[in-house]
Amino acid sequence: MDAHDVEHPIDLTLVLLTVEEAARRLRIGRTLCFRLIGTGELESVPVGRLRRVPVGAVHDYVARLRTTHRRAVPTP
Asked: Is the pTM of this model over 0.70?
């Protein structure tokens, strides 16, 4: 756990995350997170005038990255 995690602890009870919370969980910047949302790589939903990322969407995105990485790495 680094200093940033102590400053912003992760609440495991949340169902919808702000873009900033999703970015923090993915260890990426806010701008990149918005770009992933804009391209559809990371699912998000509108809540009124707000944009939220379902917790499951973060896990799905990581799973797709892992699957893509496994395919891209040559086996010995």
From this structure: yes
